[in-house]
Design brief:
Elements lengths: L1 H19 L4 H12 L5 H8 L33 H30 L15 H31 L2 E2 L10 H24 L2 H8 L18 H17 L2 E2 H17 L15 H10 L10 H5 L13 H4 L2 H19 L16
Parallel strand pairs: 1-2
The structure holds zinc ion (2 copies).
């Protein structure tokens, strides 16, 4: 994340912090005099003010490129390497970047992939999309609050994130880190997700995500904040246990978010026995106690919780047919009764349009 932070510092935060929390006028003038001096190139100005002004010394966060700071980098009383500034900036980045990613990917998927016939499904809620977006909006800032400290610890150098390809433990590791990451996070998310279905935590933490029995792409981030955060934890823990290249870390953040949307888009293209795609995750939203995995069906198969998606989901004529839907709704309600009895229902068979 240090590269991302450097980019945002250079183009956004340096100006904001220099305006909101400036150095004393005298020290600030010294910095601007150096930057605006005759014959002064940006590089020589930076060399002159490094360590002076607010004490900040510029060192690029990667060997692959450097972004020479503007003078505002030296004119705030909170220099770039101040922990409080970093954690606050990381919170803003995580929140805003998460929002942009969510709306972009979910909207693209909604327009180009999502089959709108799902609106007629008996378990599709009234105003469901605005409810999903509302839940995601509410959760994202809180998830960002919980995530920023982990990014800070990583930026302060306590993780095994590395920069150049030569720093990998061995050359092939630069490729191996991707399958290793997928295996590790898939394993952890399986158990975390399965844990979230435990009656002690389900109602409070995971149930909001199961309100969407026929999810749209906007349900992908519609979680209780603790739910979304806990399922994101394996991603953050991985670089503290295994080496991870810093650009790969950012790329994987984007990839995971895209995948999360994809398993909620209802496009059951991949009837793969290995991939935990949208069909598997739809089965999870319909019948709860199956398919807890994120990327593969491996741990569900080993943990005896795999359920092969209904064949009807893969046939255009039957996928969005009333018969299949009624069958799904009936089976699901049966399941809720079996699991919970009729009084205190942990699972929710969902409001139907008739109820509203
Ligand atoms: Zn679940
Ligand atoms: Zn889901």
């Amino acid at each position: 994340m240090d590269v991302v932070l450097e980019v945002f510092d250079t183009f956004v935060f340096d100006f904001l912090y220099a305006t909101a929390l400036p150095l004393s006028a005298a020290s600030s003038d010294v910095v601007s005099n150096v930057f605006n001096g005759v014959n002064s190139t940006a590089a020589s100005a930076i060399a002159q003010v490094n360590g002076k002004g607010n004490g900040f010394v510029y060192t690029p966060s990667t060997e692959y490129f450097s972004l020479e700071p503007f003078q505002s980098a030296y004119q705030s009383s909170l220099p770039r390497d101040n922990g409080f500034r970093q954690v606050f900036s990381l919170f803003l980045i995580t929140w805003v970047f998460g929002l942009v990613l969510y709306f972009t990917v979910a909207s693209l998927s909604y327009v180009f992939v999502f089959d709108k016939t799902a609106f007629n499904h008996p378990k599709y809620l009234k105003n469901q999309i605005s409810q999903e977006i509302g839940q995601a909006m509410h959760s994202m800032p809180l998830m960002a609050v919980l995530t920023a400290p982990i990014f800070l610890i990583e930026i302060k150098g306590y993780s095994k994130i590395y920069d150049t390809l030569e720093e990998a433990p061995f050359p092939m590791y630069n490729y191996l880190q991707f399958p290793l990451f997928l295996l590790f996070t898939d394993f952890c998310i399986y158990w975390i997700h399965r844990g979230l279905h435990h009656p002690l935590v389900y109602k409070k933490v995971h149930k909001p995500h199961h309100k969407w029995i026929m999810p749209t792409p906007y349900a992908s981030h519609a979680f209780h904040p603790l739910d979304g955060w806990s399922q994101g934890l394996p991603y953050h823990i991985f670089p503290f246990i295994f080496p991870l290249q810093k650009f790969a870390y950012v790329l994987l953040f984007v990839a995971i978010n895209v995948w999360t949307v994809m398993i909620h888009d209802g496009e059951y293209v991949a009837n793969s026995p290995i991939l935990n795609g949208a069909a598997c995750h739809t089965m999870h939203h319909l019948y709860f106690n199956y398919n807890y995995g994120q990327f593969t069906t491996l741990w569900d198969r080993l943990g005896n919780s795999y359920r092969k998606p209904n064949d009807e989901l893969f046939r255009r004529e039957t996928k969005m047919g009333q018969d299949e839907w009624n069958r799904q709704a009936k089976e699901m309600e049966e399941m809720v009764k079996q699991v919970e009895g009729s009084d205190d229902r942990t699972y929710d068979s969902g409001e139907t349009k008739k109820d509203l």
